[in-house]
Amino acid sequence: MAFLSPLGPSDASLLALAEAVRDTGYNFVTPTPATHARVNRRPGNAVAEDLRGVFGWSRSFPAEVMPPGLFELMRRAEVAVPEAGEALWRSLVRLSSLAGELFLHSAFPTSAADAVFFGPDTYRFAAAIQAELAARSAPVRRAADIGCGAGPGGIVVAKACPAAEVVMLDINDAALRLARVNAALAGAAGATALHSDLLTGVGGPFDLIVSNPPYLLDHARRAYRHGGGALGEGLSVAILDAALGRLAPGGTLVLYTGVAIVEGQDAFLEAATQRLAGAGLAWRYRESDPDVFGEELEGGAYDRADRIAAVVLTVTKPGS
C-alpha cells in the first residue's frame, strides 16, 4: 500500500487558501452543470464581484475583487490562470459547502480529462451515507470510498466515525490531491488518499464501503464522467463485484449511482439482482431521484432511454 506524501508547498497553499475563504463565512451549493451555465449566461454575470462569483460560479475576476492575501495564495497554489487579452483571472478550483464543510473541486466547466466533479449527485450520495450511519449499530473500524473524487464520501464517514481508518481511493491524481487537501481542511485525520483501481491497491476487509461512480456514457471517456458498459452501468457493476468479496462480517456497501431506464427496464438492477440472488446478503435498492441529467436524452447513446434515475444500492453481509 503506497500512502501519498504529506502536503507539499503548493498543496499547503491550497489548504491555506481554502481556510481563508472559509473564514470569510463563504457558502455555496453547487447546482447541475445546466443550471450553472444558465445562471452564468444572465446579463451582468460574466465577471465575478465577490468570492462566490470566483470560487462558486467560476467567473472571470479582477485581482482586486479578492480580499488581501487571497490572490497571492491562489498564485502559490497554482490555481489562478490569466484570461487571454484581459486584466482578468480565473480560478481552476471551486469551493462547495456540504455537511458543514467546504470541499475543493474542479472549476466549471469540467471539460478536462482529469476534472474532479462535484454537484447534486454529491449531496444525494452524502445523504445516503448519513442515513446508513444513522441506522447502523455496529462500529465502523475500517472504511473505503471507491472512486473518491474530491473525497466527500470518505470525509463524511471519517467525520462521523473519528476512530475509523478511512481510505479514499481513486485512479485520478488530480482527485487525490483535492481529497488530501479536503481531508486536512475538514480535520478528518482518519482519512487517507491512495491511488487504487477499485480496491486493488488496498488489502483486507471493510466495515463500510461507499462509492459514487461515474455513470454516463462519455464519447471522450473522461474518468469523472464515463461509466462504461452498454449505457453507463459498467463501472457500477464492477464496483459491486469488487466490494462483495471485501465486506467484513456485518459490513455494508453503499453504492450511489445512476442508471438509464429503457422501456421501463433497469439494467443495473438486473445485474445486481443476478449477483445478489442466493448470496445470503441483505440488500435494498431505491430510486433517490427519478430523473437526472435529462439533457443527455436529446440524442446519441440515450436516444431510446425513458429517463436516467439516481439510485442507491445498499448491501450488508451478515455478522459473525
TrEMBL record:
Q: Does the keyword Translocase apply?
A: no
Alphabetically list the UniProt keywords. Answer: Methyltransferase, S-adenosyl-L-methionine, Transferase
Q: Which InterPro entries match?
A: DNA_methylase_N6_adenine_CS, N5-glutamine_MTase, SAM-dependent_MTases_sf, Small_mtfrase_dom
Instruction: Provide the leader sequence positions.
Output: none
What is the superkingdom listed in this entry's lineage?
Bacteria
Q: Which PANTHER family match?
A: HEMK METHYLTRANSFERASE, MTRF1L RELEASE FACTOR GLUTAMINE METHYLTRANSFERASE
Q: What is this protein called?
A: Class I SAM-dependent methyltransferase
Organism equals Belnapia arida
